[in-house]
Structures are given as structure tokens and as C-alpha cells.
Amino acid sequence: MIDQTEIHRKANSISQEDRKEAVDALVSAFGLVPDQEQAWKDLHSLIQDEKGYVRSCAAEALGTAFGQVPDKDQAWRDLHKLTQDKARIVRGSAAASLGIAFGQVPNKDQAWRDLHKLTQDKDRIVQGSAAASLGIAFGQVPKKDQAWKDMHRLTQDKDRTVRGSAAKALGIAFGLVPNKDLAWKD
Questions:
Q1: Is the pTM of this model over 0.85?
Q2: Helix (H, G, I), strand (E, B) or coil at 3
């Protein structure tokens, strides 16, 4: 049985570890809690946490729970804001969540621009997360030619982590890419 009262208590705790545990509980039980509105309020609050680590966990949770949150417009605004967070760990988590939630976000053009921008982030982890999300969302992005160019560019990156993420993304999207010969070479 899910103790939503305990989740809510931890979401409002002064302890960073409690707040992180609340995020973990919300991501695993979001669709099962009796009060979806309260669960969404708790997640929304944790998305704005002062600690980057908690915001990062909440950003990841948002991608998983996006389809179940009652206020998709606010969830989208939160996700968009997280893609611009000063903490790279948060931007990386937001990039990963964009791929998962892409089909459900109300503003796919802005989501695409966010994802494209994250592929150019200075941090390799953020770039890798964005590359992975490109593979997941490729069929739904409005600018497939540019998404293809981004994936191809990232397969040539100097960082092996970024190249690996881009290669996996390419494998996921292979059937949809416009240049299968070049994709195969990549």
C-alpha cells in the first residue's frame, strides 16, 4: 500500500535525502496514489527545489510521470525551465525526460528547440542525454533533417560517451533516418 501522506511529508522535509526519497516514491507510484492532484503538487514543488540533485531527480521523474500529471501545461513549463537550469545535472535529466515525454508535450516546436540546443551544451553528459532523447523522439520531432544532422554530428564527437549515446540513438531511430547509408557508416 502506498502511503501518500508519508510521500507528502518527505516532499516537504528539510532533509535533502527525504525529498529525494519522495521523488523516488512519486516516480514509482505516481499513477497509483489516491490523490493525483497532491502528487502533482509535490512533484511540482520538488522540481523547484533549492538543491540541484533533488531538481535533477524530479526532472527525471517528470519525464516518467508526464502522461499522468493533471496539469500538462504546467508540467511542460517546468520541463522547459529545467532544460535551462544552471546545474548541468539538472539539464541532463531534463534532456532525458524530453525524449520520454516528447509525444505528450503541448509545444513540440519548443520541445524540439530545447532538445536541439541541449545537443550543443558544453557538458558532455547533457549532450549524451540529448542524443539519447533524439533517438527516442526522432519520429515525432518537427525538424527531422536537423535532428538527423544533430545525431550524425554527435556520432563524430571527440567524447566517447557522447558518441556512444549518439550511436545508440541512431540505432533506435535507424528506420526513420533519411540517409541510411551514412547512418550505417556512423
A1: yes
A2: coil
